Amino acid sequence: MSKNRSRFAAIALLSSLTLVLSGCSAELQRGFLPDASGVTNHTDRIIGLWTTSWIVLLGVGVVSWGLIAWALIVYRRRIGATGLPSQLRYNLPIETLFTVIPLILVVGFFAFTARDMTAIEAKVENPDVHIEVIAKQWSWDFNYVDDNVFDSGIQAQFTGKEENIFETLPTLYLPVGKSIQIELNSRDVIHSFWVIDFLYKKDMFPGHTNNMYFTPLKEGTYVGKCAELCGEYHSMMLFNVKVVSQSDYDSRMGALATQGNVGQLSTEYDRNQNLPGGDPTIRG
Question: Could you tell me the CA-to-CA distances from 246 to 149, 216, 249 in Å, in that order?
Fold first, then answer.
């Protein structure tokens, strides 16, 4: 009997040590999310919600696993035992506990998620920069509304000869420290605008405009992609986001104007020209 107890105790101790030591890694502390702390004004909030949720759920898991192990050990069949053990039914306290605790968890998760979603989705009345992103099979168009210039991209070209495929992708430029409004539209089917390190994505529907509001806080190059299966070359619908200084952003706007990319790409290039809501060639 003592040998079995020692074995169970050793297994429990080893499992606990493994869990505690693995929790020291930075990757696990942020719940296996990208290292996106401080990338935008929303990423820390998202990381906090995600990791706190996992901590709570792991706590529930540890209690549940402990109770299961306890029941297996304490109520196991002894040598020489025959017949069925005494059967217990209608244990009102336990059934109440199993109802109340999940209800508290669900209400809590809902409340904190609703709080953070409200903050993330809050409209910025006077953003510093207004950009329209238009998705298309299988690339992206960018209208820099305030500067009246545009950039149009083609899908990723995997020829096998390029040294860095990301250098060939369409690139969205954003000035660091400025509030941004991204207006999201689609030319054909449902797409989804996803910048991985921004920890947020939003669907893009033909005939309907969605908006994102955020402030990029760290300069750098970030990977973006379509996150909604949109056809044969969905996996090649990639783009870059460059968060740069205001002077570099102004230089980029000037370069687009010099290239002749003056004006705005409109809905005349949309594949869907029979959507309800009036003349589809007029931008709202």
Answer: 16, 12, 5
Give CA–CA dist 127/123, Å, rounded: 9
What SS3 class is residue 113? Answer: helix
As given in the structure block, the two tokens for residue 190 are 């449902």
Asked, as a colleague might, if the bond just before 65 is cis with ω within 30 of 0, I would say no
Is the domain 2-120 a CATH 1.10.287.90 member?
Answer: yes
Ranges for all domains in the chain classified under CATH 1.10.287.90: 2-120
Strands (E), the chain: 129-136, 139-144, 149-152, 171-175, 180-186, 191-195, 200-204, 210-214, 220-226, 238-244
The highest-level CATH class for domain 129-269 is mainly beta
Q: Tens digits of per-residue pLDDT, 105-134?
A: 999 999 999 999 999 999 999 999 999 999
Burial letters 173-208, b for 16+ CB under 10 A, else e: bbbbeebbbbbbbbbbbebbbbbbbbbbbebbbbee
Q: Please count the CA atoms within 13 angstroms of the CA of 127 that sit on its side-chain side.
A: 21
* Angle at the Cα of 215 from the Cα atoms of 212 and 221, rounded to 5 degrees: 95
Residue ranges matching CATH 2.60.40.420 in the chain = 129-269
**Crossing angle of the two packed helices 2-22 and 43-74, in degrees rounded to 10:** 180
Taking 70 as the pLDDT cut, the residues of the chain under it are: 1-32, 160-164, 273-284
Which pLDDT score is estimated for 20? 55
Residue 84 to residue 77: CA distance in whole angstroms? 9
CA gap 169, 37 in Å, rounded: 25
